[in-house]
Amino acid sequence: MLELLRKILYSIVIELVKKPINALLNKEQASEDSSKKKLLKNTATCLSIFIFVTGGVILLSSIYSPGITFDYSGGTPLATARLCSETGFPNLVKEGYEPIGWFFNEMRVNNIIEATQLAGSGRLRLTKRWERPRTIYFDPSGGSLVNGVYYKRNITSNTASNFVFPYAYKRYHTLTGWYFYGVRMESMSHAHNFTLANEANITLTAGWQRISTPEPTPGPEYIVAHHAFMIGFGDGSIRPNIEISRAQFATMLFRIMLDNDRAFFWSSENNFTDVAPCQWHNNAISTMYNSGFITGLPDSSFQPDRAITNAELVTALIRFLDIELADEIPMYEDSNGHWAAAYINAAALQGWEIGIENPDRQFRPNDTVTRAEAAALIMRVMNRPIIDAHTDMVMWSDNACVTAWYYMYIQMVTNSRYFIKKDEDIYETEVVLIPPRRWYLLERPNSRPEDIDRY
Question: What are 233-291's pLDDT values in tens digits?
């Protein structure tokens, strides 16, 4: 019965897929050298077809199909998607391991078309290779690292090239490189080769060269990253004077969060009727809602595209910074009886001002906020330092007027840099500008919080 079903399925499928497969092979043929063209011509009608029958995978073989078999090497097929849509190979998992690829002897085979070409009219056995992820630790050797004193990366052969060494700082020293028992590592791939050779995790140690010998300044200090959290538009503008939406402001707070906090509160689900998983702001809004820093409207909507109001903005910031509410007599007459009165009072006691001036001492809780005003307030309340502009900064076509009150605020929130930080949130000096984080990695439906580290 199974053999009969196999023949029926084959006769139907073969005619459906033969022409497009041949067309694809002929397209690839045009870019190959003459010897490969001959091979493609001889094997252009060969293909492998996988058919799902009662939960199993059957490989059809005939004059059109070479016999291709697979060695899973301990892997297990996925129940939900047994074939990879990109390669045509079985989708496998193996606990504690990461996939490296499919191999014929020592040759990597990338997809079913390549496998068919290799097999020709004969048979081919492909073997799945796996690798345990290795951890590379970074010891700053008396210096400082962003995100803590001890840093690590979990990598495999396939991912090593995606990572760079962390930035380290040590007062009066220059970083000469990262070393493993005296051998300077040229790249993360180079370092990964040592994990394979030792079959174990390794620790790289920072190398330092002293550049001067002044007496060190008393008191602790460490290096901190200030990542750009406002993103411009495709036309090269930043649009400082347009209103900022509720989704944009929630996303700014989402980016400002410490990585550990973002991972702890991470969510891609919410109960809002107007925020869907496919929208760019879904993960940010869901995470911020899960953290309790922002809320929706009584009708279960979030209204992501509506401009945020003064009251909504300070409420989110007061919650975000965990500042105690103030229920005293309202400090602004126009906030008396307002739903956000306690939050507005707390902001007033902190000395917060939205915008550049407020001559009549009115808070205007229901007025909307511009992108420049939001940027300036965040810089002020988080005590982020303002430095002089320089040519290495990202510049914006509509933020070119250096005398505009918001000019440097916009420059600070759109450029990433390292700072030396001391006690009491005092920032001594900028160390270096760094590339902006690829925040779009966290805006996909299948994003995970650790995706932001993959650069």
Answer: 888 899 999 999 999 999 999 999 988 889 888 999 999 999 999 999 999 999 999 98
Residues 292 and 246 in one domain: yes
CA distances from 449 to 131, 178, 344 (A): 23, 27, 32
189 plus 226 within the same structural domain: no
- Three-state helix/strand/coil letters over 156-187: CCCCHHHCCCCCEECCCEEEEEEEECCEECCC
Angle at 188 between CA 72 and CA 266, to 5 degrees: 75
DSSP string, 385-422: ------TTS---TT---TTSTTHHHHHHHT-EEEEEEE
Q: What element of type H or E holds 101?
A: strand 98-104
Residues 123 and 140 grouped into a single domain: no
Contacts of 71 (CB under 8 A, 6+ apart): 125, 126, 127, 128
The string over 412-443, giving b where at least 16 C-beta atoms fall within 10 Å of a residue's C-beta and e elsewhere, is bbbbbbbbbbeeeeebeeeeeebeebebebbb
Mean pLDDT for all residues in the chain: 76
Q: How far apart are CA 117 and CA 41, in angstroms?
A: 10
Q: Is residue 71 pLDDT above 50, yes or no? A: yes
Domain that holds residue 21: 2-131
Say which DSSP state 51 is in: E
For 247, the token pair is: 């989704």
Residue 177 sits in the same domain as residue 239: no
Q: Is the pTM of this model over 0.70?
A: no
Predicted confidence band at 37 (pLDDT cuts at 50, 70, 90)?
very low
Residues 54 and 150 grouped into a single domain: no
Q: Report pLDDT for 279.
A: 94
> Which CATH number goes with the domain that contains 185?
2.60.40
Domain co-membership, 108 together with 174: no
Can you tell me which residue has the tokens 């929208």? 279
Least confident of 17-31, 38-52, 278-292, 410-424: 38-52
Count of structural domains within the chain: 3
Structural domain ending residue among the three candidates 131, 166, 194? 131
Verify that 25 and 127 share a domain, yes or no.
yes
